[in-house]
Amino acid sequence: MNRFWAFVTKEFYHIIRDYRTLLILFGLPAIQLLLFGYVITNEIKDAKIAIYDPSKDVVTRKISDKILSSGYFILERNLSHVSEAGDAFRYGEVNLVLVYEPDFAQKLEKTGKAHIQIIGDASDPNTANMLVNYASGIINNYLISINSEKLPYQIIPEVRMMYNGELKGVFMFVPGLMAMLLTLISALMTSLAITKEKELGTMELLLVSPLRPGQIIIGKVFPYVFLAFIDAIIIIIIGNTVFGVPVRGSVFLLLAESLLYICMALSLGILISSITSSQQIAMMISLVALMLPTILLSGFIFPIENMPWILQVLCYMMPPKYFISIIKSIMLQGNSLVFVWKETLVVIGFTTVFLVMSVKKFNVRLA
Amino acid sequence: MREPENIIVVKDLVKKFGDFVANDHLTFEVRKGEIFGFLGANGAGKTTAIKILCGLWYPTSGKMSVAGYDIYTQREKVKRNIGYMSQKFSLYDDLTVFENIRFYGGIYGLKKKAINERAWSLMKRLDLEDARDKLIRDIPLGWKQKLAFSVALLHNPKVVFLDEPTGGVDPITRRQFWNMIYESARSGITVFVTTHYMDEAEYCDRVSIMVDGRIAALDTPENLKQQFHSATMNDVFIQLVRSK
Amino acid sequence: MDSPAVSVKNLTLRYGDTLALNDLSFDVPHGELLGFIGPDGAGKTTLFRVLTTLLVPTHGSAQVDGLDVVKDYRQIRNNIGYMPGRFSLYQDLSVEENLTFFATIFGTTIRENYDLIKDIYSQIEPFKNRKAGQLSGGMKQKLALSCALIHKPGILFLDEPTTGVDAVSRREFWEMLKRLQAGDITILVSTPYMDEAVLCDRVALIQNGRIMKITTPANVIASYPYSLFSVKADDIYGLLKALRDYPGIHRADAFGQTVHLSFNKDEFREAALLDYLKEKGIEPAGIREIKATIEDCFMDLMGKEEG
Rounded distance, CA C23 to CA C59, Å? Predict the structure, then answer.
């Protein structure tokens, strides 16, 4: 235990004395979050919406009210026919069209099911995505509020993207960003920290000491678990206070899942460092092999459903995909472990595989 | 005989880093075509002085000229007239012999034709013609060192600064290297060299020994040995450094 | 303590096409100070890495304290101290932090083994709060040696500890090694400086992955097969050039302000040489017979190896 703490202390000295690392560790998450948050939230204030409501009953009015009072949408006009939607988009009058089916409340009462169509202008896919997600979020909320009183009702929002086919997308940027930043910090920082010892030649001394590979690895990685965890908290707090991203589920569960994901990313970082010998290569691998998939193949920005099957298969091999859906589920839908245990298991699986591989790969010698 | 031209003139060179005085009023001259040994203990201030003379750092105070050009106002001309070779860095490991020569010729503004001519004569002189397309990392250390020295002379500088040029080299190659230094000095190039091998100090025309930022002794090896009643330069050096 | 401290048999290590170590065999008894002398690239570092269990040999075997470097690497690592060729301490940690770190990972403390390093460490202790990266070359070395010694190893491997270090620090360093050796530590040290050879109990002259000779410094010199003369002149360069073509000469090498000339035993005629030089316009300031130095022996062996 003494050896372990000596190692951890040393590692903290390295980190604290290198202000650049510190800046990356704590400055980057805040800056990224504010940057993304600002760029994205800017777009969705007062979006113009058109509504086609043939039923005009209590329920549809209630839903329309909720949407219009959310602050995100302003009613541009009421449509008298569905076919007017195309023109409304084409002339740039509106960003979103809402179409209720006829006899909405009746159908909901009788069958417990009613349909609503949310049409976005997918020529600007990101905005469309955001708007559609906001609208469906509001509808979901409404649904939760009425379900608590009576039998379970379902309002099925049917999303249609005009001009760009079926684009379903990210719910919010915070989960995606969190996955991205935790991957970056944990995997990149650990792989750099370990390859740095190789470059400096100090790894030679550690190897010649009686330390076991596991001790070296855990000693090096432990401080980063701690630091990345602080980052996760920073992201959640900024997301919540600055951008109002809710944490509807258990905070404890959210943090526990974050910790798990951090361990996954760290073990990946160790794996990278055990197969490379220079910081430069470790950095390239971390950036190219981790960052890009996290951004592109996790559903963070591009919806997985729209990808060719081969990419979809790849997406299912990406740990961030599972993490994003876990935290989305906890933060936005308020779900408990019961709903995310499968994803959690997958992340645990990844962690175990990476850890075992890196301890195996870790060379007890130089060549 | 006419008094030989002084190619390096240093008067009261002072360099401070905060409170620390790295060079404390150095004053010396180096004559044209001389092999000048610049010795000193680790941390005595040799590297600082070399960096100033090469125009990489400004001194805190003092007057200096190299190859007739002022260190403060004519830095570009100084750099054009000096060559530099250090043990740590000189050639690019991942470029070939020829590519390295071409690169150095290029940064000194030599014409393509001139570079090619000089490259060939250089490779011929060093017996490296067959190794023209070999990567530097694949040739033996001794060859690297000789090549690095030749490359430092490619643009016909008046002075060449050698910072521990023979570290780690075998004794035969080390002597071959000194042969090259002799030849260059005979052709009129001034050689300013640092080394930790004390027998190499004896190959120099004159030697200065730095202790704690000052020049503690400067003379021919022969005179120094007499002055300190020592048989070797090693003993001279140890006496000087230990007496501090 | 029956087995030697180090025992190497037919040790060979190949990197691709190059033989970094070519069939080495030798034993090092306990308490010896053995020097490996040879230029960069001779194989010294590779050999030390095999003995410190960092590299696995291609053929042959090596034992440290009777333990196999491949099979028993874990036990070996507990009982050896290693100072790699490059300065390999944490530059951003202070002197004391570095030493504490290495003490702790070997499961000991500075206080416990202070006696052992006192001699060396006390010289840098006034600077114990300084970052290792800001130390001068000589001080870095003392710190590295302290770190390698802090766990009281039985065998010490020092890879080129004096490279790039000035003559005074080098001398002090060797004095420290002598005192350590007196404390019953076996020391294997490598160096490119030929003049350090005489300070070892035995030396191994190493070149191109082969040990050309391994014996006491006195024996190396005694087995030098030629008559050696030192010639003094003002123009060493001219003298050398002239002597290269002199018939019957074995080698002519510059040594400071003299040239060392070697001839087969009893083949040297001083008068003939003087005449020859006179013809070339050179008046030597003196010729005398001398004893060979390790460097003369090394160059002789090296010249024979190569061709």
Answer: 8
> Has the ipTM of the complex gone over 0.85?
no
Q: Distance between CA B97 and CA C159 in Å, rounded?
A: 30
The residue ranges of every structural domain in chain A are 47-162, 170-361
User: A229, exposed or middle or buried, with CB in 10 Å at 0-12, 13-18, 19+?
Assistant: middle
State the SS3 of chain A.
CHHHHHHHHHHHHHHHHCHHHHHHHHHHHHHHHHHHHHHHHHHCCCEEEEEECCCCCHHHHHHHHHHHCCCCEEEEEECCCCCHHHHHHHCCCCCEEEEECCCHHHHHHHHCEEEEEEEEECCCHHHHHHHHHHHHHHHHHHHHHHHCCCCCCEEEEEEEEECCCCCCCCCCHHHHHHHHHHHHHHHHHHHHHHHHHHHHCHHHHHHHCCCCHHHHHHHHHHHHHHHHHHHHHHHHHHHHHHHCCCCCCCHHHHHHHHHHHHHHHHHHHHHHHHHCCCHHHHHHHHHHHHHHHHHHCCCCCCCHHHCCHHHHHHHHCCHHHHHHHHHHHHHHHCCCHHHHHHHHHHHHHHHHHHHHHHHHHCCCCCC
User: What pLDDT tens digit does each residue of chain C (307 aa) get?
Assistant: 568 999 999 999 998 888 999 999 999 999 999 999 988 888 999 999 999 999 999 999 999 999 999 999 999 999 999 999 887 899 999 999 999 999 998 989 999 999 889 988 998 999 999 999 888 888 898 999 999 999 999 999 999 998 888 888 888 899 999 999 998 899 999 998 888 989 999 999 999 999 999 999 999 999 999 999 999 888 888 888 888 888 888 999 988 888 999 999 888 888 889 999 888 888 888 899 999 999 999 999 988 877 6
What number of other Cβ atoms are within 10 A of residue B100's Cβ?
21
Which among A173, A171, A95 is positioned nearest to A134, based on CA atoms?
A171
- Total CB pairs under 8 A between chain B and C: 95
Among partner residues B196, B202, B233, which is closest to C165 by beta-carbon distance?
Answer: B196
Q: What was the pLDDT predicted at C216? A: 96
| In chain B, residues 94-123 whose CB comes closer than 8 Å to chain C | none
Q: CB distance from C107 to chain A under 8 Å?
A: yes
CB of B178 within 8 Å of a chain C CB? The answer is yes
Tokens standing for A119? 């049409």
Given CB atoms, is C74 within the 8 Å cutoff of chain A?
yes
Tracing tokens 């060396």 back to the chain, one arrives at C120
What are the residue ranges spanned by the domains of chain B?
6-90+158-242
The closest CB to that of C93, out of A13, A207, A364, belongs to A13
pLDDT tens string C253-273: 988 888 999 999 888 888 889
C238: which chain B residues are within 8 Å (Cβ-Cβ)?
none
State whether CATH 3.40.1710.10 applies to domain A47-162. Answer: yes
List of residues 6+ apart from C8 with CB closer than 8 A: C24, C25, C26, C27, C51, C60, C61, C62, C63
Q: What value does the mean pLDDT of chain B take?
A: 89
CA distances in angstroms from A275 to A282, C48, C51, listed in the order given: 9, 24, 24
A13 touches chain C (CB under 8 A): yes
Which of A11, A200, A209 would you mutate first to test chain C, the one with the most C CBs within 10 A? A209
In contact, C47 and C62? CB cutoff 8 Å: no
Superfamily of domain B6-90+158-242: P-loop containing nucleotide triphosphate hydrolases (3.40.50.300)
Q: Is C304 on the interface with A (CB under 8 A)?
A: no
Helix C95-105 and helix A2-17: axis angle, to 10°? 150
Task: Cite the beta strand spans of B59-195 per DSSP E.
Answer: 61-66, 69-70, 82-86, 159-163, 190-194
Tokens of A274: 């055990």
